[in-house]
């Protein structure tokens, strides 16, 4: 194990450094180079963090689904560790998205929170996966916790399209599209440097995400090793 | 076919147990009725407002009573290692899932058959002719609740504080059902028909089918350990 550790550690360091540089470069492009939004002014710049955050969160939940499915199918511990790590990061990035959105919403709409479809959907996602984490922490037996969580990881992901549909119908059947239109990305009239900033920012977040995921995954592996050693040596 | 036969046998076992003990059904009945009284004190339910508030209140009552039922659902199996005995028998996981979901469905429907008319009487709703539509929506929603609830009840079976954990993991997942049933009922109570809310009925049906299928397919893994 230990002989294998060094190169992995080095690779992780490179990934982390790359993530840091890209995020910083993305920040530079989005805060300095890209022009302020024509309507919203400087506040709009939070979009360069907001959009990557939520995309990463969805990617994370997809990884939870994949890991859960593989675990139920093959019963290999690493798939479960992956699902657990991805779920934690998914919750982190969803929470970040909501916080960034609130900071943006207050000056733009005048409120911290509104029951719009997209906001509601994000909040429900957070609730679902916080439930996932709670479920894991409340079951003592490692294998049982993994199985239960895997089921929730699959069911939760299957439920996302349904939640999505219901929440959108709920807000569109009864209310005409309201103030929320402006935040829709009008691809036709976006300044190219804005798109570049967004793309760099997204790549930076992606690198950061995989860096965090690899750290969190390693943590899960280490926990398994401790459990295994306790089992073999006792105490 | 064996799946259905096994499920029916298990369902019969649970029904027999319930007939002899009457634990779940009685508590659920009483709790559902109690909630109607609590609502009366908590909200100002004037006759002109009641039709708009009825769907939400009814569903709150069903969610809470249903959760009571779900928390008890695997109680008999937990005691005396009966679950292990069941797992040792040549039984398909899907059958156990179907039986448990059906059993909770029966309990909830029995409660609803009493609570909905009682709501109409207590709050002087005059729309008795709309009850069939209300029951149809309620039934579709309750199926979804029982199907997903059985799955969640099974995975929280070995957790600490599982009665608290169950609604925590179940309710966020139930939001499509909650929204769909309440919107449908509102429309029925307001206009007397489903109108363009039929789309919600389709969503409910889709929800039921998706999670029924998923449950039957994965329940073997859910309770294996």
Structure notes:
The complex is a heterodimer of chains A (235) and B (225). By secondary structure, chain A is mainly alpha-helical. Chain A has one domain. Helix content of chain A is 80%, strand content 0%. The longest helix of chain A is centred in the C-terminal third of the chain and has 42 residues. The two termini of chain A are 22 Å apart. In chain A, 36% of the residues are buried. About 4% of the residues of chain A have low confidence. By secondary structure, chain B is mostly helical. Chain B has one domain. In chain B, 83% of the residues lie in helices and 0% in strands.
Q: What keywords describe this structure?
A:
heterodimer, A: 235 residues, mainly alpha, 6 helices, 80% helix, B: 225 residues
Q: Layout of helices and strands, plus pairs?
A:
The complex is a heterodimer of chains A (235) and B (225).
Chain A: H1 2-33, H2 47-74, H3 77-109, H4 117-138, H5 142-173, H6 192-233
Helix pairs in contact in A: 1-6, 2-3, 2-5, 2-6, 3-4, 3-5, 3-6, 4-5
Chain B: H1 2-21, H2 23-42, H3 47-73, H4 75-78, H5 82-88, H6 93-122, H7 131-155, H8 162-173, H9 175-191, H10 198-222
Helix pairs in contact in B: 1-6, 2-3, 2-6, 3-6, 3-7, 3-8, 3-9, 6-7, 6-10, 7-8, 7-9, 7-10, 9-10
**Structural class of the helices, strands and pairings of chain B?**
mainly alpha
Strand composition percent of chain A: under 5%
How far apart the termini of chain A lie comes to 22 Å
Sheet bearing the most strands of chain A, described? none
With helices defined by DSSP (H or I, 4 residues minimum), what is the helix count of chain A? 6
Strand content of chain B: under 5%
Query: Number of DSSP strands of chain B?
Result: 0
Low-confidence stretches of chain A: 174-183
- The global form of chain A is flat
Brief write-up:
Helix content of chain A is about 80%, strand content about 0%. Chain A has about 240 residues and is mainly alpha-helical.
């Amino acid at each position: 194990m230990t002989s294998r550790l060094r190169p992995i550690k080095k690779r992780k360091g490179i990934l982390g450094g790359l993530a840091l540089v890209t995020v910083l470069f993305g920040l530079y492009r989005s805060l300095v180079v890209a022009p302020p939004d024509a309507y919203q002014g400087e506040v709009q710049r939070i979009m360069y963090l907001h959009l990557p955050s939520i995309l990463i969160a969805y990617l994370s939940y997809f990884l939870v689904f994949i890991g859960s499915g593989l675990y139920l199918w093959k019963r290999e511990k690493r798939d479960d560790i992956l699902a657990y790590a991805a779920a934690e990061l998914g919750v982190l990035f969803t929470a970040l998205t909501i916080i960034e959105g609130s900071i943006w919403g207050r000056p733009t709409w005048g409120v911290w929170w509104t029951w719009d479809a997209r906001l509601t959907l994000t909040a429900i996602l957070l609730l679902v996966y916080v439930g996932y984490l709670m479920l894991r922490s409340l079951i003592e037996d490692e294998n049982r916790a993994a199985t239960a969580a895997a089921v929730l990881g699959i069911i939760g992901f299957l439920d996302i399209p349904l939640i999505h549909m219901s929440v959108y119908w709920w807000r569109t059947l009864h209310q005409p599209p309201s103030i929320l239109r402006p935040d829709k990305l009008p691809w036709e009239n976006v300044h190219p440097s804005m798109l570049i900033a967004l793309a760099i920012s997204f790549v930076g977040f992606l690198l950061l995400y995989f860096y965090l995921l690899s750290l969190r995954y390693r943590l899960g592996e280490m926990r398994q090793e401790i459990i295994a050693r306790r089992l073999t040596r006792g105490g | 076919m064996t799946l259905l036969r096994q499920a029916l046998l298990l369902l019969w076992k649970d029904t027999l147990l319930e007939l002899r003990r009457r634990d779940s059904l009685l508590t659920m009945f009483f709790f559902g009725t109690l909630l109607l009284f609590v609502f009366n004190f908590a909200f100002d339910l004037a006759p002109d407002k009641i039709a708009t508030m009825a769907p939400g209140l009814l569903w709150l009552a069903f969610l809470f009573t249903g959760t009571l039922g779900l928390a008890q659902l695997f109680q008999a199996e937990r005691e005396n290692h009966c679950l292990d005995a069941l797992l040792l028998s040549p039984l398909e996981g899907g059958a156990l899932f179907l039986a448990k979901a059906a059993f909770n469905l029966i309990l909830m429907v029995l409660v609803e058959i009493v609570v909905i008319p009682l709501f109409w009487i207590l709050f002087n709703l005059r729309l008795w002719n709309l009850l069939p539509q209300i029951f149809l929506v309620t039934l579709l929603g309750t199926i979804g609740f029982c199907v997903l609830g059985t799955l969640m009840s099974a995975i929280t079976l070995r957790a600490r504080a599982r009665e608290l954990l169950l609604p925590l993991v179940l309710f966020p997942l139930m939001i499509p059902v909650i929204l769909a049933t309440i919107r449908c009922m509102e429309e029925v109570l307001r206009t007397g028909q489903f109108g363009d809310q039929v789309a919600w009925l389709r969503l409910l049906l889709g929800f039921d089918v998706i999670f029924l299928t998923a449950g039957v397919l994965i329940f073997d893994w859910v309770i294996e350990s």
